[in-house]
Design a protein that fits this description.
The chain is of the alpha/beta class. It has one domain. A seven-stranded parallel sheet has the order 1-4-5-6-7-8-9. The longest helix is centred in the last third of the chain and has 13 residues. It is globular and about 45 Å long. InterPro entries: DUF5131. This is Gp37Gp68 family protein. Pfam families: DUF5131 (PF07505).
Length: 250
């Protein structure tokens, strides 16, 4: 059985790839890098290469073993569209996802240019969601790349949110996640940045999920915004059994 993750917007993780490299300011204090280094120090075989990009061919078919529907974050410890991952390997991952319609698979990338180039060579079943990370105005171009992907559900992860995002054109986007940076060296997130994105989502009829305020000790700051939690999923997803299960727990 896969272990349940502490990530608020998913059930579990699946990591047929581990390791990555930094591409923008949001990567500066990467939690996955810290974890990979810790796991290597603990002697975990899959992290013997630390945070170098490593393909785990034996995990490609792992979701076939999971009968109970669940929402699965793909490559929480890497980036599926990293330039060092062969296209054939990506195709194998997509084949597995297509053959497991009981699950929802969430892919999140900072490599939006490669995603855009490869998107029309891949099969996008309804249970595969695709998102891009946008941490500040310098990465807003990822939103335009995302809109060219023929996925059923497209989403943004504005985490860590490092600056204001004032003019988000959200047509064709179904979900926005916002969160502050956490862990050692966490950079602060201003409340007005969050409020601006929340207002833009309301104006453009896009579902909003507030993940955390962040900080060195994120449990203390929590995820309450204006006296409530925002835990919406994309409306199109509610027909899927896995989404309904997560929605009931929120």
């Amino acid at each position: 059985m896969p272990a349940k993750t502490k990530i608020e917007w998913t059930d579990t993780t699946w990591n047929p790839v581990t390791g990555c490299t930094k591409v923008s300011s949001g990567c500066k204090y990467c939690y996955a890098e810290r974890m990979a280094i810790r796991l290597r120090a603990m002697g975990q075989e899959r992290y013997k290469n630390g945070f170098e990009v490593t393909l785990h061919h034996d995990l490609i078919e792992e979701p076939f073993k999971w009968i109970k529907p669940r929402i699965i974050f793909v490559n929480s410890m890497s980036d599926l569209f990293h330039e060092d991952i062969p296209f054939e390997f990506i195709q194998q991952i997509f084949h597995t996802m297509a053959q497991c319609p009981q699950h929802i698979f969430q892919i999140l990338t900072k490599r939006s240019e490669r995603l855009r180039r490869l998107a029309h060579q891949l099969n996008w079943p309804e249970n595969v969601w695709i998102g891009v990370s946008i941490e500040n105005e310098s990465t807003i171009h990822r939103l335009d790349d995302l809109k060219h992907v023929p996925a059923f559900i497209r989403f943004l992860s504005c985490e860590p949110l490092l600056g204001p995002l004032k003019n988000l054109a959200l047509e064709g986007i179904h979900w926005v996640i916002v969160g502050g940076e956490s862990g050692p060296g966490a950079r602060p997130m201003r409340a007005e940045w969050v409020d601006s994105i929340l207002w833009q989502c309301k104006q453009q009829n896009v579902e909003f999920f507030f993940k955390q305020w962040g900080g060195v000790q994120k449990k203390r700051t929590g995820r309450i915004l204006h006296g409530k939690t925002y835990s919406a999923l994309p409306r199109l997803a509610y027909k899927h059994r896995s989404a309904n299960l997560l929605f009931k727990r929120a």
